[in-house]
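Can anyone check this?
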Amino acid sequence: MRFCRFDDNRLGVVKGDMVHDVTAALDALPPLSWPVPPGDHFFNHLDALRPRMEELAATAPGRPVSEVRLLSPVANPGKIVAAPVNYQLHLDESRADTQINFGSEVKTIHDYGVFLKAPSSLIGPSEPVLADWSDRRIDHEIELALVIGRKGFRIPRAEALDYVAGYMIGLDMTIRGTEDRSFRKSLDTFTVLGPWVVTADELGDPSALDFEIKVDGGTRQKANTRDLILDCADLIEYASRAYTLWPGDVIMTGTPEGVAPVRPGNRMHAWIDRIGTMEVEVADRG
C-alpha cells in the first residue's frame, strides 16, 4: 500500500497516479486526552486502520496526484533520527571540501553516532524549502527515509526490518558551518518527507534501491542504498540502543556524494526506485 497526507490533512491511498480519499478510516482512531501517549497517533494504530483504508480505497473516486497538495506523510514524529556521513564517497568529499568541513576533522559514522533533527523542521513536498540565509551555503541531501511501525528498544539487527511501517524519500537540508548538525539541519523546512509512505510489505528489501536528485534538470546525486555503511537494519539496531523507537519515529539513512548548494528559485526533483518522485521548490521567506 501507498498512503499520503494531502490538502487539509486528508488521508489518501495512492494507486498509480491517483489519490483515493480514505479520511473516513480515521474515525476509528481512539480519542486522545492530555498527556497524549508516545508515538504518532496514526502510526500507533496503522495495523488496525489498514483494512478500512483498503476497503474505502476500492470505491473512493480518485484525484490525480498532480492536483493535490502533498504534506509530509508522517504528521507527528516523536523524533527524527539521522545518520551522518553514511556513504563512503560522501565521507571522502566531506573530508576534501573545505566548504563542507570548515577546516574540522570529518570522522566516521561510527565515531559520531546518529543525531536528532527537530520535528518542527518537517514539511511535505508541496511546501517550499526556505533558503533565506543569504550569507550561508545551503545544501540538498537526498536520503532513503523509513518510519517505525512498532515500539522497540535494543532491537536486534535480525529483527530490525520487522519494525518498519514503510519507506519514503527524504531531503535532509543543511546549512554549512561550524555549528552542531542538530542545529544546522533543524531549521524550519529542512526535513522534507514524501511523496507518500510505501509500506514495508510492498517495497520489500530496501538494500539495493537506486536513487537520484536533480536540481533544475541537472543530476547532482545518484547512488544506490547498497553503498550504505550502516544499512537500514544496522541503523535501527544502533538507534534503539539509545532510544526507545515509537511508531511514527523517522530514521533518515544518510546521503551519498554530490551534495551541493541550492538557492531560491531552484527546483529539486528527487526519485527513489520503488517509491516514486517528488518535486520540491526552494524559496526565500516572503
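Reply from J.R.: I decoded it. The domain at 80-283 is CATH 3.90.850.10 (Fumarylacetoacetate hydrolase; domain 2).
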